[in-house]
Design a protein that fits this description.
By secondary structure, the chain is α+β, with helices and mostly antiparallel strands. The chain is about 35% helix and about 15% strand. It has two domains: about 1-40, no CATH class; about 60-135 and about 160-220, no CATH class. A hairpin with a 3-residue loop joins β3 and β4 (about 35-40). It is globular, with a radius of gyration of 19 Å.
């Protein structure tokens, strides 16, 4: 299905509307040549109307803020409870620490294995994505777009940038060594093809940097 739509530049261009997919009411996906994937409303929108809301597929607090932000609710606190095992994750109270455990338990082993080193934000976020994709319940995070559909842009990337990402991919493999034996079979059976290769996954994370605010890296696959 092809429609003509008017963009902000007031030029008409042909776009392909994605179909046959469960979508949030009143929204549709489209693909615009030269611009990429898009998401738009199919009807009128009232000021302040909420069109769609979902929990992010994976999040992580950036290293530069890891000592003053709760790793569960992202509240800034002067005094935080530190995870006794990995020495990295911090929480504003016991409740947040308990609620975070399902997401943190695998990460905790990986962080502990590299002490006193702490992986980069991209590596930790990529690992959390893997753990989230292996989780039996991902909620509505991938309702609009899946991580498999997210672009890595490796084919158009310079060799210099690829080399830099390759170093991060190697760090990701090292980071996951503690969980490697348990993850190997799960990754092959549960992860989409483009997310099984560390380099491709790291590149996908890199294209999501525009979703990061000042102290929390957030990847929302939608």
């Amino acid at each position: 299905m092809t429609q003509l739509v008017r963009h902000s530049g007031c030029k008409q261009c042909s776009v392909h509307v994605e179909g046959n997919r469960d979508m949030a009411p009143g929204m549709e996906r489209f693909l615009s040549p030269g611009k990429g994937n898009g998401l738009r409303a199919t009807g009128g929108i009232r000021p302040g109307e909420l069109l769609f809301s979902a929990e992010p597929l994976a999040t992580c607090v950036s290293n530069k803020r890891s000592r003053d932000v709760c790793h569960r609710c992202y509240t800034r606190c002067e005094t935080l409870l530190r995870c006794s095992q990995c020495k990295t994750a911090r929480y504003c109270n016991i409740t947040c620490q308990k609620q975070a455990w399902s997401d943190h338990k695998r990460e905790c082993k990986c962080l502990w294995s590299l002490l006193p080193r702490v992986p980069t934000d991209s590596v930790r976020l990529a690992a959390r994505l893997i753990f989230a994709l292996l989780s039996p319940s991902k909620g509505s995070s991938e309702e609009l777009y899946t991580l498999e559909e997210h672009e890595s842009h490796l084919s158009s990337m310079s060799e210099q940038k690829k080399q830099g990402l390759s170093q991060l991919a190697s760090m990701l493999e090292l980071y996951l060594q503690q969980e490697a034996a348990d993850l190997a079979q799960e990754i092959t059976s549960a992860l989409p093809p483009s997310c099984r290769e560390p380099l491709s996954l790291i590149a996908k994370v890199g294209t999501c940097k525009h979703n990061a605010n000042r102290h929390v890296n957030i990847l929302m696959c939608s």
